[in-house]
Design a protein that fits this description.
This protein is an alpha/beta fold and about 250 residues long. The protein has two domains: about 160 residues, Molybdenum Cofactor Biosythetic Enzyme, Chain A (3-Layer(aba) Sandwich), CATH 3.40.980.10; about 80 residues, 2-Layer Sandwich (Alpha-Beta Plaits). The protein has nine helices and twelve strands. It has a six-stranded mixed beta sheet with strand order 2-1-3-8-7-6, sandwiched between helices. A four-stranded antiparallel beta sheet has the order 10-11-9-12, with helices on one face. β10 and β11 form a beta hairpin. α2 packs parallel to α7 and α8 crosses α9. The chain is elongated and about 70 Å long.
């Protein structure tokens, strides 16, 4: 009997008062989730957003690291007083918080003479024996401890660092998806879509309303590791869509 691939999952912990206050709109959740799903075969099962408070960060890190295969944090590893992620994770895992020699050398070489000041040197303080995540954009590395990967909050920098993690995490098959956008409302397709889902329990099917050009619509997203299962569901959906004379806006 062929063994089923073990499902690998992850959680994302967004750290920062600026996200909770609404001053900054988070863009990292979508990017990390898409990268993990499509490139690594890792399903993101939970996302949390927490303030820059040590006790809360520690509590969430401990909960998530026990519950999921991987945890990805964003924010709180910069040079300012409220960047406390590294210190909090040190205390969560009960390891010494100290300056990282390799990180120090990287930033010492990155900055021009005299620019690597005391404030910037704060970015090389990490949990003892942390493994670095190299930063090709702005120099300052992220780090990982056990199954927790700590990344910066700036989206462009975070994106440039994810590629360096590909060989450090073990996932499953990439999770594939297909989207069918319809000119309809959810109530019109709910019964038929439920029947398709009931007949294909190992495929994830979701419906998401949208409003475009002054008209309502629904996007149906089919997700699976198996393209043939996606195609099978797609055909079933298009069959009832045609029967109901519903307009297909796009398929991708």
């Amino acid at each position: 009997m062929k063994k089923k691939n073990k499902k690998v999952n992850a959680a994302i912990l967004i750290i920062g008062n600026e996200i909770l206050s609404g001053r900054t709109q988070d863009k990292n959740i979508a990017f990390i989730s898409n990268w993990l799903n499509s490139k690594c075969g890792i399903s993101v099962n939970e996302v949390r957003i927490v303030p820059d408070l040590e006790k809360i960060i520690i509590k969430n890190i401990l909960e998530l690291s026990k519950k999921f295969n991987y945890v990805f944090t964003t924010g709180g590893i910069g040079p300012t007083h409220d960047d406390i992620t590294a210190q909090s994770i040190s205390r969560a895992f009960q390891v010494k918080y100290e300056y990282h020699k390799e990180a120090f050398k990287i930033l010492e070489n990155y900055y021009k003479k005299g620019e690597f000041n005391t404030g910037r040197q704060k970015m090389v303080w990490m949990p003892k024996d942390a493994k670095l995540i190299l930063n090709p954009t702005s120099g300052a590395p992220g780090f990982c401890v056990e199954n927790v990967f700590c990344l910066p909050g700036v989206p462009s920098i975070l994106k440039s660092m994810l590629g360096g993690l590909k060989n450090r995490i073990v996932g499953g098959k990439p999770i594939l998806s297909k989207t069918i956008s319809l000119r309809t409302v959810e109530s019109e397709i709910a019964k038929s879509l439920t029947a398709v889902q009931e007949a294909n329990k190992d495929v994830e099917i979701g419906s998401y309303p949208f409003f475009q050009a002054g008209k309502l619509g629904v996007s149906i997203v089919i997700r699976s590791e198996d393209q043939s299962k996606i195609d099978f569901c797609n055909n079933q959906i298009l069959e009832f869509v045609n029967q109901k004379n519903i307009t297909v806006v796009s398929k991708d």
